[in-house]
Design a protein that fits this description.
- This protein is of the alpha/beta class.
- The chain has helices at residues 23-36, 54-64, 107-117, 131-138, 149-156, 173-176, 181-193, 203-206, 225-234, 245-255; strands at 10-16, 40-50, 72-80, 105-106, 122-127, 157-163, 169-171, 198-201, 210-211, 242-243, 263-272, 277-282, 288-293.
- Helix 1 packs parallel to helix 10.
- The model has no long low-confidence stretch (mean pLDDT 92).
């Protein structure tokens, strides 16, 4: 496993569905914290799903924390999340330089551009479905680069930190979207073709780590943009919060050291069946790893 354990700031791309559940927002805020700490530099954020206000609300969130300049790409062929998630509603009235998804670059084009032009290898943080990554490995040489997607990944990607699956076996939404055949096939394509190391943070790691609970004790006046988003998520709910699936993955990527984060690691290969259930075959040669909390 080749995690970068060096002092220089790493470059990262974040690949998120930015939809449904509020832990995406907490994950992006965690990434902004990591950037402030000098742990890595965010080169781009790619959205792997579709929803009418995706780019506007993501740019509004980034702008609220002084990083409205981060390039955003969107996959117009991603799974369509119909309707605006409650937690995004405060972002519709926040300052944003983007009003339409069409103002953002195509995700695949932005992926290829960032990878081709970056001098250093890049870490990818995947906190959603695999539409963008699957399209990247299948992409051909073009005007951006004379390398195929697989060649670009091999040349310019160091490692992928991925929220996905349950281990050693189970069923998880990022892998199968509740049994959607298209999502399952895309996950299969990513798992079988991606040619660098991938560290998976399974859902079981964060099932009991909750974000956004008891907000009145933290920011009762709702001054923080993230707090406003979390309040909106909890509206009409008993202040239940949300398991920190995506934030845990971003934090692991930020620290860049499995052991320091309190995990052991298992090496092998992840597979997924036609029903969307994943399993793990241990081996000394596989490029896949999943983390286990130290006892």
């Amino acid at each position: 496993l080749q995690e970068k354990k060096q002092s220089k700031i790493r470059d990262v791309i974040i690949d998120t569905d930015w939809a449904g559940d509020v832990d995406d927002a907490v994950a992006i805020k965690t990434a902004l914290w990591a950037e402030e700490q000098g742990l890595f530099k965010i080169k781009a954020i790619l959205i792997n799903s579709m929803e009418g206000n995706h780019c506007q609300t993501l740019n509004a969130f980034l702008t609220g924390y002084g990083r409205g300049d981060v390039p955003i790409g969107i996959n117009n062929n991603g799974d369509n999340y119909l309707g605006l998630a409650d937690w995004k509603k405060p972002l519709l009235t926040s300052a944003s330089s983007i009003t339409k998804n069409t103002e953002c670059e195509d995700a695949l084009r932005l992926y290829r551009k960032v990878l081709a032009n970056n001098i250093n290898k890049i870490d990818i943080i995947s906190i959603g479905n695999f539409h963008n990554l699957s399209h990247l490995v299948d992409s051909e040489a073009d005007y951006i680069s004379d390398k195929t997607g697989l060649e670009l990944v091999e040349d310019k990607v160091n490692i992928v930190y991925c929220m996905g699956g349950r281990y050693p076996s189970g069923s998880e939404y990022n892998f199968n979207r509740g049994g959607v055949a298209k999502t399952i096939e895309i996950t299969k394509n990513f798992l079988s073709k991606w040619n660098t190391d991938v560290i998976f943070v399974g859902a079981e790691v964060a099932d009991t780590i909750i974000v956004g609970r008891k907000l009145d004790n933290i920011d009762p006046k709702r001054k923080e943009l993230l707090t406003q988003v979390l309040y909106a998520y909890n509206e009409n709910k008993p202040n239940i919060g949300r398991p920190a699936y995506d934030p845990c993955t971003v934090y692991l990527a930020a620290i860049g050291d499995v052991e320091k984060c309190g995990y052991d690691i298992v090496r092998g290969t992840v597979t997924i069946d036609d029903s969307g259930n994943n399993s793990f075959i241990t081996s000394n040669t596989g490029k896949h790893y999943y983390v286990v909390k130290k006892k």
